[in-house]
Write a structure and sequence with these properties.
The chain is α/β, with parallel strands linked by helices and about 130 residues long. Helix content is about 25%, strand content about 25%. The chain has helices at about 25-35, 65-70, 100-115, and strands at about 20, 40-45, 55-60, 75-85, 85-90, 120-125. Helix 3 (about 100-115) links the parallel strand 5 (about 85-90) and strand 6 (about 120-125). It starts with 19 loop residues before the first strand and ends in an 11-residue tail after the last strand.
């Protein structure tokens, strides 16, 4: 009799992508969602030379424009922004990002963005983006 573990139709046991989103990311996102704080964006990326740990690289106020200006030039970024009373997320990979890092970051995307609960949509973040373009 096939089971969840042996039946080929079940897809087997679901495994994690291996990403480790550090608690500071969820804590910073909670600040963004709190109307009592001025923090309205966060950028998260790999922690130092780690291949699995994601931490906050930058956060602050200034909206989409400030967030776009703070994007990293050599590492993939995940993040979220308060935009006209709504909360949006993004995934950005710069042109100069090494292919292996680009692939790993793409594989981790859902695991990281799932930590940013309550977002309305995902935007196409890039350097120079303005609120009017969203």
């Amino acid at each position: 009799m096939p089971t969840l573990f042996t039946d080929p139709r079940s897809g087997g046991v679901k495994k994690s992508s291996g990403v480790n989103v550090l608690p500071i990311v969820a804590e910073t996102w909670a600040q963004i969602r709190d109307d009592k704080t001025d923090v309205d964006y966060l950028i998260a990326s790999f922690d130092g030379s780690s291949k699995t740990d994601i931490t906050v690289i930058s956060s602050g106020s200034g909206g989409v424009e400030a967030c776009a200006a703070a994007l990293l030039e050599n590492k993939p970024c995940y993040g979220g922004v308060r935009l006209r009373g709504r909360f949006v997320t993004f995934f950005y990979v710069p042109e100069g990002c090494p292919p292996l890092q680009r692939g790993r970051a793409s594989m981790y995307k859902n695991g990281v963005l799932n930590v940013l609960e309550g977002s309305d949509k995902e935007i196409d973040m890039r350097p120079g983006l303005t609120e009017d373009q969203c």
